[in-house]
Structure formats: C-alpha cells, structure tokens
Amino acid sequence: MQIVHTVSFPDTETLSGLSPLPPGLQGIVWDMRSAPADGSLDAVDAVILPYLNAGEVLSELTKVPHLKFVQAQSTGFDGIREAAGPGAGVANASGVHAAATAELAVGLILAKLRGIDDAVRAQQERDWRPVRRPSLADRRVLLIGVGGIGTEIARRLEPFEVALTRVGSSPRTDAQGRVHGIGELRDLAPNHDVVVAVTPLSDATHHLIDATLLAALPDGALVVNVGRGPVVDTDALTAEVLSGRLHCALDVIDPEPLPRDHPLWDSPNALITPHVGGNASAFEPRIRRLLASQLAALADGRTPANLVQKGPF
User: Fold this and answer.
1) Among 69, 100, 242, 275, who pairs with 46 as Cys (CB 3.0-4.6 Å)?
2) Closest by alpha carbon to 178, among 200, 163, 199?
3) Rounded to 10 degrees, what is the CA torsion of 57, 60, 66, 69?
4) Catalytic residue among 139, 192, 275, 286
5) At a CB cut-off of 8 Å and minimum separation 6, what does 300 contact?
6) Catalytic residue (choose from 114, 155, 207, 256)
7) Helices 98-113 + 148-157 axis angle, to 10
8) Residue 73: phi, psi to the nearest 5?
9) What mean pLDDT do residues 147-175 have?
C-alpha cells in the first residue's frame, strides 16, 4: 500500500481512537514538546495539534519540512496560520465546541444576573440573603459574533424571552434576521443590559470592547466573554468592574491564566471560569467525528473541511 500522508497525532489516545486509519495514511505520535519516537519528522506532512495549550508549541511546526496540513482541535486559530506558513492548509474545529460553549455562555449569564455566585459565597458563610435580582427574561442582549457558537447562543437564549441584537463583521440580513456591523457597536451599547462576546480574534476585533465602548454601557450592565480574551481590553474592564458600575462573567481573558494577584479575582462583580467553554463531555465524540472525516478527506484526495487557510487544497 502506498503511503499518501503521514499524520502526527498529539497523543497515543487520539491515534488509537481513530485507528485503523484510512488506507494510504500512517500515523505517528508527536506531542510537539519532544521528538517523536522514531526521532524524525521528515515523512510527516499533516499535523493534528494538541487541544490544550496548543499556542505554546506552534513554533515546533517549523521542524516539519514537508508540512501540507495542520488541524486544530479548537475553534480559534490564533497564530496557527502564521506558524504553519502560507504553503500549508490550516483547519479549525468549527462546530465541535459550539454546543458546549453556548451552554456555558448562558450559564454564566444566568449565574451572574441571578446572583448565584453571591449565593455560593453566602452559603459558605451560612448566611441567608434574599435579594431581588435581574431576570434573564426581558434583558436586552447584545451578541457580538454570529458564527457557529454565536448561532448556538442565540438559539439557547430564545426561550428566555430576551430582546436579542446580533452583531457581525459587517451589516447584513440572514435567515434569522438583521445582523448589525461592528461599526454600530458604540451606538448600540447604551441600549443593552448584557453584552456577549464570542467573536474570533483578529486585528479588527483586538480590544473591540474597549474603554469607550464599556463607558457607553448602562450602569449595572453585564459583560460576558466566551470568545477570545484580547477582544476585551482587560485593564478597561477591570476599572469598570472594580468601580462597581459593571459586572463581568469571563471564560476567557487576557492574559491567561489570570495572575493570582489580579484584582478581578476578589471582585464580587466578577465571575471567572478557566477557559472551559468547549472542555466538556461533548468534546470527545465530536472531535473524533471531525478528525475521522478530515483524515478520510486526506486519504481520498478531497479538500478537508473548516479550512481557514487553503494551502495546497
């Protein structure tokens, strides 16, 4: 059998879970932190990145002399195209994390609005503190990001009877209705109680939620980020949260991990989860289905799905 592609897998479990590989493919295990078992990457032309902390090992892609394809296990692909070079195709895991991340987004909104985080602190002190809190019903929600995860968040918010405004990279109309452009954000901000960021990170979205936008939000507004940390200016958000004017619920933040001495940890207006949006039970079966499909495409000479850089495809 002629070997068409040699694929590196980040761990033995991933390779085993996808074995036997389609005809024409062979696999090696390479965690990108040490040399592969056979000591050579000369035959490798496709690399599956690790799921966690992939950004720490991207520079290792330069050690693959015949790289043609890189598969991320995350939806975000920050830095991967640059590390792979323009000659390699790059695919993300769009769709794999959408349901789980959307669940967490709604959970964070509910927890912060209804004061569940405060109730946990009160429980630890055995203190009964009934307080009237904002409901999610009738809240005006500004959703920044209308891709796969944004679509799933919108679907899950619909039964809660919110007034939803969606924002994308450019204004348009889709099957769900109107999508505002990011250029409209500062005009929209004063009329919304909750802002949810799930947009990818790019030059256009870096610090998209900055001091000016935050200042335009009404008192008591909630900022939720389940997309990419640098989309929100952490210093500007911290200042607003510590002042008591705004609340935040963050699964991603810049930097990650958040330093232990950062003041957001101690703020009762902040709820922080450690970038676990997609790290749920849904991940394993869904990533295996995607990887199996991608490997079959490589073996058959078809174009893989989810390309964010075409490379040779």
Assistant:
1) 69
2) 163
3) 10
4) 275
5) 22
6) 256
7) 50
8) -100, 10
9) 97
Compute the Cα dihedral for 92, 95, 99, 103 and give only its sign: positive
Instruction: Please state, as a whole number, how many other Cβ atoms lie within 10 Å of the Cβ of residue 250.
Output: 25
Catalytic residue among 228, 240, 247, 286: 228
- In this predicted structure, what is the pLDDT of residue 270? 98
pLDDT of residue 183: 96
Cα 191 to Cα 17: distance, rounded to the nearest angstrom: 49
Give per-residue pLDDT as tens, 251-276: 999 999 999 999 999 999 999 999 99
| pLDDT tens-digit readout, 61-104 | 999 999 999 999 999 999 999 999 999 999 999 999 999 999 99
256 is catalytic: yes
State percent of the chain over pLDDT 70: 99
Cα-based angle 144, 248, 220 (whole degrees, multiple of 5): 95
Active site residue 262: no
Give the model confidence (pLDDT) of 204-244 as tens digits: 999 999 999 999 999 999 999 999 999 999 999 999 999 99
Q: How far apart are CA 148 and CA 152, in angstroms?
A: 6
The Cα–Cα gap between 182 and 251 comes to 22
Sheet holding 270-272, edge to edge: 172-174, 177-181, 163-168, 140-144, 194-197, 222-225, 247-250, 270-272
* Residue 133 is among the residues annotated as catalytic for this protein: no
182, two tokens = 């990011």
Q: Say if residue 1's pLDDT is above 60.
A: no
CB 36 within 8 Å of CB 28: yes
Long-range contacts formed by 162-168: CB under 8 A, 24+ apart: 162/136, 162/137, 162/138, 162/194, 163/138, 163/139, 165/140, 165/141, 165/192, 167/142, 167/143
